[in-house]
Amino acid sequence: MSRTDRASRVIAAPPATVYGALLDRESLETWLPPDGMRGRIERWDPRPGGGFRMVLTYLDASDSPGKTSDATDVVDVAFADLVPPERVVQRAVFEADDPSFAGTMTMTWHLAAAGEGTEVTVTATDVPPGIDQAAHEAGIASSLANLAAYVETVG
């Protein structure tokens, strides 16, 4: 059975600013890694059909083993749909030997004007069963908090 994880947050920035941070390489490297990780983008092609490859490194891998290696998660992300400034749909595949992390997870970032800000809702569908749901939703919430801090200070 496929699983859906989600999180949302209102960010004090207009949808166009938030959308821009979803499609800017340096921005993504800054805010996308959840707390306890850092990220590096190895490949970048921000267009429908394009995508990116990100290496996420755990700052302390002792209690959070990675999917690709003891200290890393490597994910290949394809941009399935880009609708400025409303939606970004990504298809993510983790590099992992463990079959419980196999498959393509779809991440939909939906942006809706909310007063002076933007409500960002992230919905992850077909989440691989090896990914703990509570940890995944906390990770998405952490990335959203990082996104808010990023666009609210630079926007």
From TrEMBL:
InterPro entries: ASHA1/2-like_C (IPR013538), START-like_dom_sf (IPR023393). Gene3D superfamilies: 3.30.530.20. Residues 12-152 form the Activator of Hsp90 ATPase homologue 1/2-like C-terminal domain. SUPFAM superfamilies: Bet v1-like. Belongs to the AHA1 family. This is Activator of Hsp90 ATPase homologue 1/2-like C-terminal domain-containing protein. It comes from Streptomyces plumbiresistens. The lineage of its organism: Bacteria, Bacillati, Actinomycetota, Actinomycetes, Kitasatosporales.
